[in-house]
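Hi P.,

Sorry for the delay on this. The queue was packed all week, but I finally got your sequence through. Input first:
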Amino acid sequence: MRPRTLAAGAVAAAAALLLTACSTPGGGAVAGAGSDTLVVSTPTEPDSLDPTFADTFAARMVFTSFCEKLYDVDSHLKIVPQLAAGMPKMSDGGRTMDIPLRKGIRFNDGTPLNAAAVRTTLVRDLTMKASARAGELNAVSRVEVKDPYTVRLVLKHPSAPLLSQLADRSGLVMSPTALKKLGAKFGTAPVCVGPFSFKSRVSGNEISFAKSPYYYDRAKVRLRGIVYRFINNSSVATANLESGDVQAAEHLDASDALNLENEGREKVLHSDTIAYQSISINVRKNAKTALSHSSDLRKAFEMSINRKALNQAVWNGQMVPDCGPLPVQSPLRTAPHCTPFDPGAARALVRKSGVKTPVPVQLMVPTGAASQREAQVIQSMAEDVGFKVNVRPIDLVSGLDLARKGQFDTFLEGWSGRVDPDGDTNDIITTGGSNNFSGAADKTVDRLIAQAAQTNDSRKRAELYAAAVRRVGQNRSLLYLYHDRWFVGTSDELHGVVYPPDGIPRFKTAYLSR
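Then the structure:
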């Protein structure tokens, strides 16, 4: 997913860049879209458009166009106010958080934004059955309205990661009027504060939005609308970009991005993101696979994977090989000690296990050409040391569902990354976490992550996260492969796209110069 023209040293530097784009020539008007309506291709379809339940990166991307948060992140991954009027005020030893709100803001149905509205959203996130936000907000004991434009969060204990959660989906605020009307069906016609308002959704095809007449910053919104179109093949998305059927193609493969750059007709934006790719190995007690019951076989499986060769073969050398979840941009990162690529030692471990070879492994992988190529390279590497890998393509939403149920052997999947390390660890490597696909249960890891969340001492937090990542590395229930660089191809007629290192392009200030 990254052009060869990026220098290796650009990884750290790009974290500080806010990329603003121009886009493609040659595009005629898209059917069903006006000349000032932007059409964006994205490789995966969002799950729910209800912030309480949404659990995919695709949903995070779409939310930026119609559903703003209390806080956001800037080009340096610094948390900044969005719907909040300023940074929160802490008191009572870090157990009380007062959030001031901007005045004069309305949801896209005209409902005023105030502390009561924010409280309605947060209480829903905390209490609604099957909420994907409840775990992110588990430090919150109760939500109060301090005054009409100040919401107070009373915490069970100090929580260093909470602010970063409010700069993500837990900070998305929904219209109380729409919530009352739609209830659990809010995602079918969502209403938030945002530059665009929801129009329609055609499952498996596209989601459409129109410029909001209520948006507080609408003078900066120059598009009449935006359409997210689902195209899961990067080459097809690239062809649509070149033909003018879309004006932005998100998440292009590195080879396609490289070709666009070499042709020089379209622009390519790149972001050295906080995302990472990994393989979850099901280690539940009821799992009936060789890998689940043998740490030596899991070690052999990891030692069979040459991360650098994988990066070169699939991504033209544009990813950042790594064996830990914290991105290179994180000030709390401690460089992990990686298990080396060693096929000879891997073969010895396979022989030592006494398991009949080839050892069967089913690798579940989201559908898509790039994911398929990646799985095939891993398949070849693992088979070289005594494993027989069966690649099982599956759509992402179904794959996530099976992973959470523990109905898989291994799962190749990505994590879009979070600003605070807690978001890259807690709920993913802690016991019972909704994104702990492996089913690993380690009380020491749980304790380390909990301690890291409850201290604001950066040095201490870094030590605790490093210790937790080491434990996971020793158990090998989760094998980290690399950190992502992502690409957005754009038309030369598209301008004003912002692409920060959280990997989510913003189209609020975008416009077309046809």
